[in-house]
């Protein structure tokens, strides 16, 4: 699991919990070095494994949203591309799908992400799937909202250990969401609230929705 500076904790807690508690699981929190990084929002994290000591074979490689400078970092891209080529399954959640894109994993594949940035997926040659909770294409599992990270992890667990193990994990975690307000997607919230959310997220993350960001991602993907 990649834990870059500024990584979105909510995006990776699903795989970390669902897969990390399985009998015999060996969980690696990966970064360039083992110095403490701060997840978003304010969540100090100590990586357990640096890139150089990442195991050769991974059952699952997971990434959530990371900062734009991480998505376009050549060292991170090269590591992620190499690790993904050896992993049985790759889970990319929310903005983590952009790193999968710069690492060359999205070309010609169906993929989703959250509604704030789904328009960027075409920059990587992906086939965007709007409104997708979890989308699978081969060994790549992409998820839009952070809550879907649990669902992606449960589906991957079923592939690795069988459906019964995944059913038991779902029960053990009591994963049965009941959203209290019914506004958890653009379709449910309506256009006005969705537009407000887009503005808030762009300001919060300092995202540039203009073509310059799209161009930067294309350049990173073509390295």
TrEMBL record:
User: What SUPFAM superfamilies is this protein classified in?
Assistant: Class I glutamine amidotransferase-like (SSF52317)
| Listed GO biological process terms | regulation of DNA-templated transcription
Record Pfam families: DJ-1_PfpI
* Record-linked InterPro entries: Class_I_gatase-like, DJ-1/PfpI, INH-QAR
* Start and end residues of each DJ-1/PfpI domain: 1-157
Question: What is the name listed in the Swiss-Prot or TrEMBL entry for this protein?
Answer: DJ-1/PfpI family protein
* Organism of this sequence: Kribbella antibiotica
The uppermost taxa in this organism's lineage are: Bacteria, Bacillati, Actinomycetota, Actinomycetes, Propionibacteriales
């Amino acid at each position: 699991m990649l834990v870059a500076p500024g990584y979105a904790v909510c995006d990776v807690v699903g795989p970390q919990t669902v897969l990390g508690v399985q009998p015999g699981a060996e969980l690696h929190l990966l970064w360039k070095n083992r110095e403490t990084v701060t997840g978003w929002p304010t969540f100090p994290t100590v990586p357990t494994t640096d890139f150089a000591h990442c195991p050769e074979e991974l059952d699952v490689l997971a990434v959530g949203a990371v900062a734009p400078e991480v998505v376009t970092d050549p060292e991170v891209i090269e590591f992620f591309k190499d690790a993904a080529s050896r992993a049985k399954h790759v889970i990319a959640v929310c903005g983590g799908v952009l790193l999968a894109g710069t690492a060359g994993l999205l070309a010609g594949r169906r993929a989703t992400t959250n509604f704030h940035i789904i328009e960027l997926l075409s920059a990587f040659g992906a086939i965007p799937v709007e409104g997708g909770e979890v989308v699978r294409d081969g060994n790549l599992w992409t998820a839009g909202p952070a809550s879907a990270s649990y669902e992606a992890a449960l589906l991957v667990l079923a592939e690795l250990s069988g459906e019964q193990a995944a059913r038991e994990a779902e029960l053990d975690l009591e994963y049965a969401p009941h959203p209290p307000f019914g506004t958890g997607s653009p379709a449910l919230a309506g256009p006005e609230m969705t537009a407000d959310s887009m503005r808030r997220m762009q300001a919060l993350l300092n995202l540039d929705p203009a073509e310059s960001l799209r161009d930067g991602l294309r350049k990173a993907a073509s390295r």
